[in-house]
Design a protein that fits this description.
The protein is α+β, with helices and mostly antiparallel strands. The chain is built from six helices and 13 strands. Helices cover 23% and strands 20% of the residues. A ten-stranded antiparallel sheet has the order 3-4-5-7-6-11-12-10-9-8, with helices on both faces. The chain has a three-stranded mixed sheet with strand order 1-2-13. It comes from Conexibacter stalactiti.
Length: 328
């Protein structure tokens, strides 16, 4: 039987239709990515001149490191084709501003190369390298502390929007809060008012741990769950055990648990799947919030229902997904 679920954090509705997994051709699996050729990989160590001049890099053990040279563990460069720019020009004014409005696309758009190794997925890196990469994610979010919203994401595989296969993150520093994130901010605030100061995600996590049916894994820093209103099959959410507003603040970053659950996805699906991953951190104006990491494998296509209504159709119940990934 199908049911409609409302995600507690976003308010978005999803139809959980597990019976549709039995349709012909509905089996879910992933095929391995094509191996990367280091000789043609612009993000590989030794190819520093193939990117824009670096903004930041870690070169452990290198005395007096020079920029744009080998020896780095994580490297940050401007996006060669940025969606945002600090000096974006004013758009032309439209005659009817009640109907047509525009603003300059101001902000920053950076690429964080997660490792010098030519691999396509975070799951293929040693966990220590994932920790190092995520510490740089945090550092670059701090570097743009004045932005209204920082959105850090990882796209893996072309099916999920990656234009270059070498594992990398992107950071958008926006001078506005997107509507979807503002809606989450409002839901956190409304929940705090209703509960006299309760934290929406912290209380949700506590209830999920009590129920156990959607828990995937737990370590000392965080908990991984299959969200109640999962929009896509095998969607995951990683939540810190102690609620903190901002990912960029000092404290645990859940790197080991992220590496763990990405490995579980690969084992369950037969290969690392195409996926989108992002870090949700408190935007400006958030008096109540908690950071999290969302992981959305791209195993099914968004079609007319999703694109036309904003309602997703998920053929794998999160309870089943969590049970399978616990065993993976």
């Amino acid at each position: 039987m199908s049911e409609i679920r409302v995600d507690p954090l976003t308010g978005l509705r999803t139809i959980i239709a597990a019976d549709r997994a039995n349709r012909p051709g509905a089996g879910l699996s992933a095929t391995p990515a094509e191996p990367l050729d280091p000789a043609t990989d612009p993000f590989a160590e030794g190819h520093e001149q193939q990117t824009p001049p670096e903004l930041y890099a870690l070169r452990p053990g290198v005395e007096q490191p020079a920029p744009d040279t080998p020896g780095w563990s994580v490297r940050v460069v401007p996006n060669r084709y940025p969606a945002l720019a600090a000096e974006a020009p004013e758009p032309a004014l439209e005659a009817n501003r009640d109907l047509f409005t525009a603003a300059p696309a101001r902000g920053a758009h950076e690429v964080i190369v997660n490792a010098p190794q030519s691999v396509t997925a975070l799951a293929d890196l040693p966990v220590e390298q994932v920790v190092t990469a995520m510490e740089v994610w945090r550092e670059r979010m701090r570097a743009h502390a004045g932005a209204a919203c920082r959105h850090l994401l990882v796209n893996e595989r072309r099916e999920a929007g990656a234009s270059l296969p070498h594992t990398h993150a992107q950071l958008y520093a926006l001078d506005f809060v997107p509507a979807a994130i503002a809606r989450e901010r409002e839901r956190f605030g409304a929940y705090a008012v209703r509960t006299m100061g309760g934290n929406l995600l912290a209380d949700l996590l506590q209830e999920e741990v009590r129920r156990r049916e959607r828990i995937v894994a737990i370590d000392d820093e965080a908990v991984a769950i299959a969200p109640y209103g999962s929009r896509l099959p095998y969607q995951l959410m990683i939540v810190p055990r102690q609620a903190r507003d901002r990912f960029e603040d000092d404290g645990p970053i859940a790197a080991a648990l992220l590496h763990d659950v990405l490995g579980r996805l690969g084992r369950q699906l037969g290969a690392n799947p195409p996926l989108n991953l992002w870090v949700r951190t408190a935007p400006s104006g958030a008096d109540h919030f908690c950071w999290r990491i969302d992981v959305l494998p791209r195993l099914t296509h968004l079609a007319g229902l999703e694109l036309g209504t904003g309602v997703n159709l998920n053929i794998v119940a999160p309870e089943r997904a969590a049970a399978e990934l616990r065993e993976a």
